[in-house]
Write a structure and sequence with these properties.
- The complex is a heterodimer of chains A (991) and B (460).
- Chain A is mostly beta strands.
- Among the domains of chain A are: 98 residues, Immunoglobulins (Immunoglobulin-like); 139 residues, Ferric Hydroxamate Uptake Protein, Chain A, domain 1, CATH 2.170.130.
- Chain A is built from 11 helices and 49 strands.
- Chain A has a 22-stranded antiparallel barrel.
- In chain A, a hairpin with a 3-residue loop joins β18 and β19.
- Chain B is mainly alpha-helical.
- In chain B, the strands form 3 sheets. Chain B has a two-stranded antiparallel ribbon with strand order 2-4. In chain B, strands 3-7 form a two-stranded antiparallel ribbon. A two-stranded antiparallel sheet of chain B has the order 5-6.
- In chain B, β5 and β6 form a beta hairpin.
- The longest helix of chain B is centred in the first third of the chain and has 26 residues.
- The termini of chain B are far apart.
- Classes of the chains: A mainly beta (991), B mainly alpha (460).
- The interface between A and B is large, with 89 and 95 residues.
Chain lengths: 991, 460
């Protein structure tokens, strides 16, 4: 009503103005603005007359009018969510303008906590990875598909073994002693929240997201700033990863099959010394040590065949891993009911010899209902996955640096050899030692919404997550050097985690004029129960019964139980005026069972605000080429309670040994701290989001600064107290700040041709702001106030002493000897200065090419940091040690003299590993993903009766460019399996 | 319509708030105590739990790989003295073998840390049992006695290894974390008073099966060791005599029986279970794991210290041939499973030698020779006879101790220090590296940082 009056008022003024000017060739114009697809009227569109500059806004029926318009004028019509249209009047007096909707990145829905928003209206910082991006990557865990894709998100794979863990950090590391993991929420249910049950795996615990099939994921949202995360309160200090699984859609029933298969190899091998140079190194080492080799110290020189050569790296990790994946999904949907049913089976092996497959079977069901006159909605997401890991107990890459002339692993009859293996064990015996991990996870979530009144919706989310893990690890007799009376060991570890969550909330949408507001008010109850049984069996006399705990000569059992409860009330007000001025307030009150009775409650809140300049009339007039411009900022607090259950209790428990003389025994396990409470992370962000050329070019530049204090940590105690630490909040503060840049562009957009590109860049910084009395803690050689968190302490390296031939370091206090206590100084940082990714997507007719480059500017540990023995000792070395070692007095060399025994040279080598020389640049650019797909032309598909058909080739970790010496720069460890280069081919069809 | 809306929203909000408050916040997040744990208050509330807490002391002492009382004292002190060599020594182990220990040495630090961990348990027991509770009087006395005894036992190893040490006597971590080192004499005074108290509280009979928990005689026997160390000869001899006369530990059993479960000679044995058994030091030495070589083996000069015909050399020493060299290693314990042998902490032969030592110092030569002979007879060695001077007898006692108590709780190392012969013996054996201040081990540098009140030992 108001609007119409205002429009008429404007029209009247224009008419007066126009008649005053007395311009000829002017006439009145009426028009309507219509949605080009739905034919519905578009309200609120602005109509600009060029060249006069007159402007009106369409009313609720999409109608607008001018009293005086030049007959040759051009109308520029723009509206939120539509491509701007330009129409020539051409003397007409009535006109219909069709507006093409743009589902540009700008108005696409973004999932946030307890709701949705859009890039246009969001006041927070949310990164997104969609299903198409995930599906292009032949990975088995969704986390691998996120690497390099989102600014501010760092994902690092700890090891290339199937199922191994990922380190995930959003905007840096916020905690010294508490957990730094983001909160993972799958369809509204916290996924394995803050649990680290451990594993029988020797290296790395399997990742809890393994059982989730990446192909079932519709989208992943990364919530970064206070505005986006404060609604998750105390769980959100480290950011939130929201995973939404797929749903069916409206339309005819369809059935799709996706199959791919491929192979993987190690990305970057390191050449090792050949036998002759290896043995030469050893002889020189003994000569310089002044020691005569004996059979026990030098089996390679005295016992083994000096002409023999085995490429152990090739033998152990040179194989090809295979990956096979089959997925089927069925969709059907009407307006009221949409169903998606899908299942997947995947099998992968690794590069070790005789590798057994690691498999995943998963199924999901999604049912979406909307009915009762559109008042009731229900969404059920059910997801069940079983992930089986089968690997050797140890990463075989550990054993790659055996002497190259070590004996053959197998004899002529194919049996493991043992004689002559002196000073080293036959690495192939490791294949007998099995690690198995089976994780079965059910994730279910039901969302109900009921419209009580227009604009008022009552929602309820009920989620249940049940994960059962069974592990088995064996050390059979067959893996041990034969001897009399050998026995075997086996361990069994079963644990279950059950989470439930119930969250009723009300959403109320009001609209008043051009004000729009959404209120959200709700509560959350969560509980997690953890139970475990760990059985360790020893003295099995036969390998045949290792799976039977009853066959063990001795058994020990440890049980675990913990309960975690969490309760919250939360509220949010999201409001904006005319898509122009945005304000978002969120607040959450949390209660956690993890803290001392005195400090269980905490309040978290955030405010976010935005100003969409491009909605201002003056902007539209003066900077029409900048189609979108928003300034936004947010500030607020979130918390972290990742310190484990019951940490505040003075608990006595059953010790590892269990009983004494078959009687119960109890030992003290922790000290009481009733004041233990939340870590608090206060986040500040300022950002600019802009769009140019009809938003074909979108740029986001964000600056953030997170300050995390009240650090949850084990406060170190001198052990004379009986404990080495107490769980406490330390009055230390960490700052993570940085710049994030995200650029998305469409270079070519034609019928047959499309070229899109994107770039994201993160420039992170961290600083320890304060740490009381750090000089009196063990952290004084770990952190420094005012310095970045990834600082490293060590000896200052001075080079090789030309006289002694040993590595030399600065004796800081000049007392004539080196000790960590007196001579450690900050020697550098191990961490990232910048990282990001660049993607290119080219489409031509049915062809699509995707390239994704990941780049990281970082420093890492030098190669020798992962080589445990000094150069010259028993064990092979990278080929580059062949030259450069000190050989005699006066020699200026890069490497110290070879050595074979404990002594000054070995000490110097150990010091080198903890020195400034051990920190080197490990920058890299990686062609992380290449994907080529070809959609079979329509005509062929019709003949084959296929709705869709596509063939594709995908590759992960294809090429790595780096100057880093020492294996893959991501793992930066010569003796650990790096993520594999995987190449697959596949076919996707829809019936 | 609009008004109606408002009312409904108000109504719904009120309902929601009521629902929230009905469910309550604090009540919901009150979780059950962890089912596998109990809190301190509950531990000393009844006989069953209080006894479990004392059992926990022994579990920790014998359990795990890192306890001064399960294996570390034997191997570390053995390596620091002239008993043991390490096959393929790590840098830290080599530091012990050469007595060039740095303040960063984590092995030595384990002795400190584990002894204080046990002391915390003892202090918690002493405090907990001091409060009124349902624990019955006989049980309370026995448990209090055990806690005092074990605390004294721990302090004796701390003070002998490190010299001055902080006397921590409560569980109050806030004040304990800043305690500085107490003088050696003060620590010994506390050890003796704890032992005195333990002896008066504990029963003569063993409180659990066999000799797995100490009795009154354990406390008296241990006080004999401390009194000897302090040169209080008469009291030492009296204490030893009391135990030997009344305890029923004599006559000495034959050599193969000394380390068996419930051995007659044993005064206190820690009972390893299946899990812990592999950690008992003497059991780590035989080459029963992957390597064909013993972890620790005996120095040649210890082998030469055995007199010809000494049956201990065959009964308690084993050997293995490896790549042309014969390695001798301690074979006092033979079994690979924990059912037949228990870890002997105190035994009668040591008491005989303590008394011989004390008697020699008091000038009772003949009586002293008698005690030494009791030990020699079992080893089927000729007895000491004829006239001996005090010094000759003392030398004989020291020699006897070396071969009777080798690779057992670091006796050799502490004997060399007690008798002031460390520099004489080890300086000759390790001329390149031995320094007189090596008799005391360094406090770990990390502890000095965490507690600035601690001062490092001389020479480190």
């Amino acid at each position: 009503m108001m609007m119409r009056i205002r429009v008429y008022g404007l029209v009247a003024m224009l008419w007066l103005w126009g008649s005053a000017m007395g311009q000829p060739l002017m006439k009145s114009l009426k028009g309507q603005i219509v949605h080009a697809v739905t034919q519905s009227p578009v309200a609120g569109a602005s109509v600009l007359v060029l060249p006069t500059g007159a402007m009106v806004v369409s009313d609720e029926q999409g109608v607008f009018g001018f009293l005086q318009v030049p007959q040759d004028a051009v109308l520029q019509v723009s509206a939120v969510g539509f491509r701007t249209a330009t129409v020539a009047v051409n003397g007409r007096d009535s006109i219909q303008v069709l507006l093409e909707p743009v589902v540009a990145a700008l108005d696409e829905a973004i999932v946030i906590g307890y709701g949705k928003t859009s890039r246009r209206l969001s006041t927070g910082s949310v990164g997104k990875v969609d299903a198409a991006t995930i599906e292009r990557q032949p990975v088995t865990n969704v986390l691998a598909a996120l690497q390099g894709r989102v600014a501010g998100l760092w994902v690092e794979q700890s090891n290339g073994l199937p199922g191994s863990n990922f380190n995930v950090e959003i905007r840096g590391r916020n905690s010294i002693g508490g957990g730094t993991r983001p909160l993972f929420v799958v369809d509204g249910v916290p996924w394995m929240q803050n649990v680290n049950p451990g594993s029988l795996a020797t290296g790395l615990a399997p990742n809890p997201l393994n059982s989730l099939n990446p192909a079932d994921i519709e989208r992943v949202e990364i919530l970064k700033d206070a505005d986006a995360t404060a609604i998750y309160g105390a769980a959100a200090a480290n950011g939130v990863v929201l995973i939404t699984t797929k749903k069916g859609g409206q339309g005819a029933s369809s059935f799709s099959v996706n199959f791919f298969s491929g192979a993987g190899v190690v990305t970057r091998g390191t050449p090792q010394l050949a036998t002759a140079s290896y043995l030469a190194m050893r002889r020189i080492a003994f000569a310089l040590d002044g020691v005569n080799p004996s059979v026990s110290t030098a089996p390679d020189l005295l016992l083994w065949d000096s002409t023999r050569y085995t490429d152990w790296a090739g033998e152990l990790t040179g194989g090809a891993a295979s990956l096979v994946n089959l997925q089927g999904s069925l969709r059907t949907g009407s307006k009221t009911l949409q169903v998606l049913l899908s299942g997947q089976y995947q099998s992968q092996t690794t590069v070790f010899p005789q590798t057994q497959p690691t498999t995943r079977g998963s199924g999901m069901l999604s049912v979406v209902y909307r009915g009762l006159k559109d008042r009731l909605g229900a969404t059920l997401q059910l997801n069940y996955g079983i992930f089986n890991i089968r690997t050797p107990v140890f990463d075989l890459a550990n054993f790659m640096y055996l002497p190259p002339n070590a004996p053959a692993a197998y004899d002529s009859t194919g049996k493991l050899t043992w004689t002559n293996w002196t000073g080293a064990d036959n690495p192939m015996a490791q294949l007998e030692r099995r690690f198995e991990h089976r994780n079965a996870t059910l994730n279910s979530n039901l969302v109900l919404d009921y419209r009580l009144l227009p604009g008022l919706v009552l929602k309820a989310t009920v989620g249940y997550n049940d994960a059962l893990t069974e592990e088995y690890r064996s050390f059979p007799i067959s893996s041990k050097r034969p001897a009399a009376g050998l026995t075997a060991e086996a361990s069994y570890f079963d644990y279950s985690q059950r989470n439930w969550i119930a969250e009723p909330y009300l959403v109320y949408n009001v609209k008043k004029g051009r004000w729009k507001a959404e209120w959200t008010l709700g509560a959350s109850w969560q509980e997690r129960l953890y139970q475990s049984t760990s059985i360790n069996g020893t003295q099995y006399t036969t390998d045949a019964l290792l799976r039977n705990a009853a066959a063990a000569g001795q058994l020990s059992v440890v049980s675990g139980y913990s309960q975690y409860r969490y309760q919250s009330y939360f509220g949010r007000l999201s409001t904006h005026w005319a898509n122009r001025y945005l304000l978002n307030l969120s607040v959450r009150q949390d209660y956690s069972s993890r803290f001392g009775p005195a400090n269980r409650r905490a309040l978290f809140a955030a405010v976010g605000a935005g100003w969409v300049l491009s909605e201002e009339q003056w902007w539209k007039r003066r900077v029409p080429w900048a189609s979108f411009m928003k300034l936004r900022g947010s500030y607020g607090s979130t918390g972290n309670d990742q310190i484990g259950d019951y940490a505040f209790l003075d608990a006595w428990g059953v010790p590892f040994a269990g009983r004494y003389q078959n009687n119960l025994s109890l030992v003290p396990q922790s000290l009481f701290n009733p004041y233990l409470q939340w870590e608090r992370n206060r986040k500040l962000e300022l950002a600019m989001e802009g769009g140019w050329c009809q938003n074909r070019l979108m740029l986001t530049v964000a600056w953030y600064r997170n300050r995390c204090d009240n650090q949850l940590t084990g406060y170190a105690l001198p052990t004379q107290t009986g404990f080495s630490s107490i769980a406490d909040n330390l009055d230390a503060a960490i700052e993570n700040s940085g710049w994030e840049i995200d650029l998305q562009g469409t270079a070519v957009m034609q019928k047959d041709w499309k070229w899109q590109m994107g770039l994201n860049l993160t420039l992170p910084q961290s600083q320890l702001l304060s740490y009381p009395d750090i000089e009196q803690t063990l952290n004084r050689f770990v952190y420094q106030v005012g310095a970045p968190l990834d600082i490293r302490f060590g000896y200052q390296y001075e080079g090789v002493d030309p006289q002694t031939g040993l590595y030399r370091f600065t004796d800081q206090n000049g007392d004539g000897r080196l000790s960590s206590t007196n001579d450690y100084v900050p020697v550098g940082r191990i961490g990232r200065r910048a990282f990001g990714g660049i993607n290119q997507q080219l489409q031509w007719k049915g062809w699509q090419l995707d390239l994704f480059f990941q780049f990281v500017q970082q420093t890492a540990r030098a190669w020798f940091a992962s080589m445990p023995v000094a150069t010259g000792s028993l064990g092979n070395q990278p080929a580059w040690v062949k030259t450069g070692a000190w050989s005699g007095a006066g020699d200026n060399s890069a490497l110290q003299r070879y050595t074979t025994r404990a002594g000054a040279a070995t000490t110097a080598y150990r010091n080198l590993q903890n020195s400034s020389a051990a920190i080197v640049d490990a920058n890299y650019i990686r062609l992380k993903n290449v994907s080529v797909s070809w959609t079979i032309p329509e005509a062929w598909r019709a003949r084959l009766r296929l709705k869709e058909a596509r063939l594709y080739v995908q590759a992960q970790n294809m090429i790595t460019w780096t100057d880093y010496e020492g294996g893959d720069p991501e793992t930066a460890n010569l003796r650990s399996l790096a993520p594999l280069r995987m190449i697959t081919g596949g076919i996707f069809i829809t019936l | 319509m609009t008004n109606n809306n408002r009312i409904s929203i108000k109504g719904i909000s009120i309902c929601l708030l009521l629902l929230m408050s009905a469910l309550g916040c604090q009540r919901f997040i009150e979780v059950k105590e962890p089912a596998q744990q109990v809190t301190a208050g509950a531990v000393f509330s009844d006989d069953m739990n209080a006894t479990a807490a004392i059992n926990g002391i022994y579990s920790q002492m014998i359990g795990g790989s890192s306890s001064f009382s399960s294996w570390m004292t034997t191997v570390l002190a053995g390596a620091a003295a002239d008993e043991l060599l390490r096959f393929n020594a790590s840098v830290e182990e080599q530091e012990l073998v050469t007595n060039a220990i740095t303040p960063d040495n984590n092995l030595v630090s384990i002795l400190w840390t584990s002894a204080y961990r046990t002391i915390y348990q003892c202090n918690a027991a002493i405090e907990g049992l001091g409060r009124p509770s349902a624990v019955s009087m006989p049980v309370r006395n026995q448990l209090l006695g055990e806690a005092h005894f074990v605390r004294a036992f721990c302090y004796s190893y701390l003070v002998q290894s490190f010299g001055d040490v902080p006397l921590v006597l409560t569980t109050d971590w806030a004040s304990n974390q800043g305690l500085s080192r107490n003088a050696v004499a003060e620590v010994y005074e506390r050890i003796l008073s704890d032992l005195q108290k333990a002896g008066s509280l504990m029963s003569v009979s063993y409180p659990s099966a066999m000799k797995g928990r100490p009795n009154k005689w354990s406390a008296v026997a241990f006080s004999a060791r401390i009194l000897l160390l302090l040169g209080r000869w008469e009291e030492a001899a009296l204490a030893a005599t009391e135990v030997l006369d009344k305890g029923g530990y004599l006559p000495l059993p034959s050599l193969p029986q000394v380390y068996l479960a419930n051995s007659r000679e044993a005064i206190w044995q820690l009972v390893p279970d299946a899990v812990n058994y592999g950690y008992v030091p003497e059991l780590r030495m035989p080459p029963f794991y992957t390597a064909n070589v013993p972890g620790y083996y005996l120095r040649p000069d210890l082998m030469m210290a055995f007199e010809p015909g000494d049956r201990r050399r065959s009964a308690w020493v084993d050997s293995v041939q490896y790549l042309g060299t014969r390695y001798y290693y301690p074979g006092k314990y033979k079994s690979l499973s924990g059912n037949t042998e228990y870890y002997v902490v105190l035994r009668a032969a040591e008491l005989l030698l303590i008394r011989a030592d004390a008697r020699a110092n008091m000038g009772y030569i003949a009586e002293g020779m008698q005690d030494v002979n009791a030990v020699r007879l079992r080893a089927q060695l000729p007895i000491l006879s004829g006239a001996m001077s005090k010094d000759e007898l003392l030398a004989a006692v020291y020699r006897e101790r070396r071969v009777e108590l080798f690779a057992e709780w670091g006796h050799r190392w502490y004997d060399l220090k007690r008798t002031g012969r460390a520099t004489q013996v080890l300086g000759r054996l390790k001329p390149d590296s031995w320094q007189p201040h090596d008799t005391l081990w360094p406090i770990h540098s990390g502890q000095l940082v965490l507690n600035p009140a601690l001062r490092q030992n001389e020479g480190y």
